[in-house]
Amino acid sequence: MEFLPLFFSLKQRSVLIVGGGEVALRKARLLTKAGASINVVSPQVRDDLKELVKSSKGLLLEEQYQSTSLSGVMLVVAATDDQAVNKKVYDDAQAQNLPVNVVDQPDLCSFIFPAIVDRSPVIAAVSSGGSSPVLARLLRAKLETMIPATYGRLATLAEKYRQNVKDQFSQINQRRGFWEKILSGAVADLVFAGKDSEAEKLLQDELSSAEPIQRELGEVYLVGAGPGDPDLLTFKALRLMQQADVVLFDRLVSQPILDLCRRDAHFVDVGKARSDHTVPQDGINQLLVKYAQKGHRVLRLKGGDPFIFGRGGEEIEELSDAGVPFQVVPGITAAAGCSSYAGIPLTHRDHAQSVRFVTGHLKDNSANLPWSELAFPNQTIVFYMGLMGLPVICRELIAHGMEGSTPIALVQKGTRPEQKVVIATLETMVETLKQNPVSAPTLIIVGQVVTLHDRLKWFQPGEDDLVK
Question: Among the options 27, 229, 245, 272, which is catalytic?
Fold first, then answer.
């Protein structure tokens, strides 16, 4: 994160704008909307900017900028076409620890102006960190269509009754439950329909009749986070991720996905790396029950899909036995995600009429898989968690009748920016990896469909590290 988003209160505070032209006027209009008092220093100042200074009860100095111009202000904007002046403003402001923005020069900014969606008191701000203001404006335009202006009136109504709700409900979970009901139910619908008086009356009725929400028993959301790309999450997954009070996650969940969870939730890293489980599976099951029994909404966030080598079935069995309610949200499993992003279709009319998903995590390094069935022609085999057992997998498939020249792909961190695809044959893959090491998580794809990678690959986050 290049910049930390902050919201300044500028009401009746002095802000200095160095410059008197069109750009300075635009910044002044924005700052006065936030209640700032505008000081302008410039040898020449346009008339409409002078009027704005006067109406904001600011100070107009029609002279060259001097360091003393910074006296008594809390924010500085340089909007001149003189690079030397802009640089001096920046240096002077930095020396006094004042936030400063030099328009269109990100390297001379300690803060930047975002593209703003104004639904006061609700404000949404979008920034590209100064790298592309046009892109930020385009994103703002999308948000404008998604956030109706009535959200501002809804927020104003909520603000009016915030203290009343706080007085009635002593526990934060009780207050949160009440507001979730109000802001996503009939009261919100009435505001959106322009019936503000009716909405307020209904809110009053709900408040007077509402019993404290005890939530003696919470709920568990078993959510598939997919293979890593946040754009592959379902809408339902995102909604539940924002509702959860407690988040239990493992190493396969990427940081960008964790960042989409509610920020004030309690996060518990349960690990589950190979041979290094931060929390054993039985312990995870018990944690889910414990947190739910305390009335929390618990998110069990799992890489891929919870029911495909994710041990989700074991977890909800424990919840069911304990009488804890739960929901299951499917995710894109690693086989589907990684193969798609690697340009390797799992089935194809000319190459494979079936596909097998197999765990490659060999217990005690024993080859206890149905190798004769796996070595069947015209099918694709996908091995999960097979990196450590790769030599055994290649050896046993050849030993049970599969040609040594059969193509095999290993996909590292599929769908993520770190994705890497290595292609070889059953005979050569082990040696190939010695020259081109990969790191977990990985997925192994075996079958003739692998030959389509060259033609069908489309996702190339970096230099293609394909090896044949």
Answer: 272
